[in-house]
Amino acid sequence: MEDHNQISALQKHVMFFDRNNDGVIYPSETFEGFRAIGAGLVLSSVAAFFINVGLSRKTRLGQPFSFHFPIEVKNIKLAKHTSDSGVYDKEGRFVSEKFEEIFAKHAHTQRQALTADELQKFMKSNREPKDYAGWLAGYTEWKILHYLCKDEHGMLHKDTIRAAYDGSLFQKMADEKASEKKK
User: Fold this and answer.
1) Of 34, 36, 101, 130, which has the highest C-beta tally within 10 A?
2) Global pTM value
3) How far is 17 from 24, CA to CA, in rounded Å?
């Protein structure tokens, strides 16, 4: 990824998992990334398998099938699933109005955070009819984010969600986990 200014928010979101910075994410890198942010062996393994199998073909237009299931970061916008929040536009750019809308419509307990129930209602509100794959993708993403990032009261905070969208969250989590290991 040459020019950091030309990189979309969606590309930044996934670049953490490109562990060797070559523009391609293999399942082993997805696994390493999940482990680095504190996910257990099972979650990291399952995530690596399903993410790479699910996104590889979509990001490799015109290329032959590969059992290595690489994801091309430059084409990640092509793998954007349906039934999503709309916070990333079709080019993978961050849409701040859609981000703010999440909290305006769904954050009732606390203006700057979502409870598990509010998160569930938010996910349901994004569902397109009979879009089961999109529902599953959205549900999985949000449940993993909530599981890994909720506070001691079960709240998923706005700044955490924003950091997930802008690509800064995963490195921050990895740095925190590495610092904990040193203690």
Assistant:
1) 34
2) 0.91
3) 9
